[in-house]
Amino acid sequence: MYKGILLSLTASCLFGLVYYYPVLLQPLSVIDIFCWRLLMSFPAILLLVLLERQWHTIIELWQRIRQQPLFLLALIFSAMLVAIQMLIFVWAPLAGRALSTSLGYFMLPLTMVICGRVVYKERFSFFQKIAVALAFSGVILEVYLTGAFSWETVIISLGYPIYFVFRRHMKIDGIAGTFSDFFFIALACLIYFILQYPLTKVVNDISHFPVFIPFLGVITAIAFAAYFSACRMLPLGIFGLLGYVEPILLAIVSIVFLHEKISPNHMISYGLIWGAVCMLVIEGVISTIRNIKRKRFNT
């Protein structure tokens, strides 16, 4: 369990580093950085599939495409959904919107809970009801004070639930789905490079960033390997709780390293949303402790 916790924290820290990474690659454009990230990351994902001995899941995915050709459109749509999220992840630190984007990741567990209630008719627990009420109050207050709610926060917090529901509906599971998403996005980036990038610009980018560009693949490989390994080693409750570490790190990167500030207008509404997340954390801690005690009693 301790090894799993360490691996989960390592993955979160590396994803936090990737959040700051676009700053290191300036003056490359957002699209250029996004494409370099995906092209450097895909070999890492391929290596991860081989190390995890999951190649048979990719073969099964290919067999589904042969049997159901329209399933290919579902895979492409899944890749498009996650590509939007990844593009915002690159854009936000460069556009001064890192903090509002990190708020989307804070709200993500809440929107997933609401999505489970709406789509799968799951019941709200006591703490979930409080969390939803606090989050809803925070959103309403934010709209009232500022006249709007950051579109990047909305896309992150609502886009991922749509993505996960679609993947579950189409039965695009696990590492095979991740491989498929990265494959189609990397393919689109390669086509973009072929059409828009002369060879001299490719050489120029690599010569200016001979360490930072290739290192994107290394970071991604280690992060995903640690993430999937932690998922196997840890009980689901503990793994879910550790999932809150990443948005906390994203907020720290935004405030400490990217020097973004929370305006007084945002302070109360952000506080309500973070309070909602705390309710889910408390529920997760209580549930995890109960499960551990139950297992000990049964043994």
Pick out its properties:
about 300 residues; 13 helices; about 0% strand
Largest sheet, in brief, is:
none
Task: Look at the helices and sheets and give the structural class.
Answer: mainly alpha
- Give the DSSP E fraction (strand runs of 2 or more residues): under 5%
Helix amount: over 70%
Helix count?
13
CA-based shape: globular
Order of helices and strands: HHHHHHHHHHHHH
Unreliable residue runs: none
What's the pLDDT, averaged over the residues?
Answer: 87
Q: Supply Rg.
A: 20 Å
N-C termini distance:
18 Å
Q: What is the tally of beta strands?
A: 0
Descriptive overview:
With 299 residues, the protein is an all-alpha fold. Helix content is 86%, strand content 0%. The protein contains 13 helices and no strands. The protein has helices at residues 2-24, 30-51, 55-67, 71-95, 98-120, 126-146, 151-170, 174-196, 199-208, 212-233, 236-242, 245-257, 264-298. The protein starts with a helix and ends with a helix.
Summed up:
Helix content is 86%, strand content 0%. The chain has 13 helices and no strands.
Secondary structure topology:
Layout: H1 2-24, H2 30-51, H3 55-67, H4 71-95, H5 98-120, H6 126-146, H7 151-170, H8 174-196, H9 199-208, H10 212-233, H11 236-242, H12 245-257, H13 264-298
Helix pairs in contact: 1-4, 1-10, 1-12, 2-4, 2-8, 2-10, 3-8, 4-5, 4-7, 4-8, 5-6, 5-7, 5-12, 5-13, 6-13, 11-13
